[in-house]
Amino acid sequence: MALPGSGSISMGDINVELGRSRTSTIELDNAENGDYAAINSCSPSRPSSSNPAAMSEWRGYNHSFACCNAPSISSNSVTSSSFTINVSYSNCSAMHLEYSSNGGSTWQTSTGGCTTPLTLSGLASSTAYQVRVRITCTSTNGYSGYSNTITMTTSAGCPAYGTYLSQFCSGCTLYYRYANGSCGTYDQVYSDCTTACGGCCCSPGYGTYLSQYCSGYDLYYTYSNGCNGTYSSLIESNSTTCGYQEPSINCYSYFGDGSGSWLGRDCNGNIVEGWSCCYGEYLFCGTSISYGGYGDLNQVCGTSQCPTPDMPILINPNTWVTAGDLKVGDYIYTKHETTGEWGSYQVTSANSGTNIVSRTIIGGQEIKVSSNHKFLTESMGFVPLSELWVGAKVQTIDGIAEIESIESIGVMEVIQIEVDQAHTYVIGEVVSHNRKEEGLQ
């Protein structure tokens, strides 16, 4: 309750108003400075912190007087004829929602009880309304300040039943689309066969073969869609009709003969060509050359058992490096090919080359290696990937994993790795061999 507005006031009365014991020690100047309790700035009558302090300043002071603060509002939802807002408020006896559809030039007011969320109905569709709120405060019976102003835009109304909206074609048939009166649509056939749909009644029937074409080595057939359009279907991948040739079993290194232009085929059967500056310049790894160079049948390429440069190689427990970053003299962590003991062994060779590469998924991990790359199997020793199958089991650093897929992805760069003594390394967690039989890397 407030201190009396007239008559005498005791220091004990001030203590009680501030929520203290009547007999607590109190100094008037400290009380006015808020040392015992912050002075309520919302009380209509309140003491000043300016000196000198006086008992008369405390007449009518109400320490629990409720402030008349402006509310705050935010958007909740809209329909075509209403909007709903959230209101944050206190000390409210009545709420006054004001809204304007002309940018704030004029405002309309809807007064009601104090509530949130607050909905206003009976509005025009597709209209932007500026919205603000103020309240009548219980403590003062007067208005608060205005809230923040937000914009609420009502949604579009539904067109009347039967209102024409659009037209579209399906095959040779032209349809008109109409409103159903509840923000939905319905369609009606306007014409079973019309030039408005491209004169499709004169088109070859759906699925009629028209032509064929190549995209790279893939053969496609083109068919009529029944309405003066077409669609294509893949008939054969790597088609000989499109110039594809099966990769040669043996690929050789080819060099320039100094005549300039050269033309040949790589290990995938692709035509490759270019310009060579001088005699003996390395050109490509492939199966044949038509002009501009010569082959060295003693330099078989694409036969090394190797990973691609981006494959991870185990160098310490839980530490990996890509094959392309390995250098002679580095140590890798692997399982010895004969003793089966794990340890660190030195890399004696790490050279770039080319080979026909396969992508395999083992235990959920992608591994890219030459097709003749040997993995340590569960029970058959080291076996080339080309002789394994989906479902075959190989040894990993943690146990056994299953081959989930195998696919050839063409000739690519590979890294030829040889490891001293162990003659193995771990690629993508799978134990593999580093060299071919008869000492060939």
How are the secondary structure elements laid out?
Blueprint: H1 11-17, H2 28-32, E1 72-78, E2 83-88, E3 92-100, E4 108-112, E5 118-120, E6 128-137, E7 150-153, E8 164-170, E9 173-179, E10 185-191, E11 209-215, E12 218-224, E13 230-236, E14 251-257, E15 261-266, E16 271-275, E17 279-291, E18 293-301, E19 312-316, E20 319-322, E21 331-335, E22 342-362, E23 365-370, E24 374-376, E25 382-384, E26 393-395, E27 400-419, E28 424-427, E29 430-433
Antiparallel strand pairs: 1-2, 2-5, 3-4, 3-6, 6-7, 8-9, 9-10, 11-12, 12-13, 14-17, 14-18, 15-16, 15-17, 19-20, 21-22, 22-23, 22-27, 24-25, 26-27, 28-29
Written overview of the protein:
With 441 residues, this protein is an all-beta fold. It has 5 domains: 1-65, no CATH class; 72-153, Immunoglobulin-like (Sandwich), CATH 2.60.40.10; 164-202, no CATH class; 251-301, no CATH class; 312-439, Endonuclease - Pi-scei, Chain A, domain 1. It is 3% helix and 46% strand. The protein has helices at residues 11-17, 28-32, and strands at 72-78, 83-88, 92-100, 108-112, 118-120, 128-137, 150-153, 164-170, 173-179, 185-191, 209-215, 218-224, 230-236, 251-257, 261-266, 271-275, 279-291, 293-301, 312-316, 319-322, 331-335, 342-362, 365-370, 374-376, 382-384, 393-395, 400-419, 424-427, 430-433. The strands form 9 sheets. It has a 5-stranded antiparallel sheet with strand order 16-15-17-14-18, with no helix packed on it. Strands 21, 22, 23, 26 and 27 form a 5-stranded antiparallel sheet that branches. A 4-stranded antiparallel sheet has the order 4-3-6-7, with no helix packed on it.
